[in-house]
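Priority: medium. Attachment 1 of 2:
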């Protein structure tokens, strides 16, 4: 009569041998993101985009063009 190994089906996964599961692996800590962390595009995440200077620049450019043509 042959001996049949029942251990792989009875023991929990971390106790089995040869399954590749390693017991007691240290868990990686997640890095906390800062509120005003700079993104890849150079903007800050927390700050809203300010369109006022851009609009003023465009407005003054067109006013200058109108005054030149008049």
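Attachment 2 of 2:
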């Amino acid at each position: 009569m042959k001996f049949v190994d029942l251990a792989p089906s009875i023991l929990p996964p971390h106790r089995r041998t040869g399954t590749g599961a390693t017991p007691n692996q240290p868990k990686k800590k997640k890095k906390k993101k800062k509120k005003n962390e700079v993104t890849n595009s150079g903007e800050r995440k927390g700050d809203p985009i300010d369109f006022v200077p851009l609009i003023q620049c465009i407005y003054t450019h067109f006013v200058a063009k109108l005054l030149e043509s008049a």
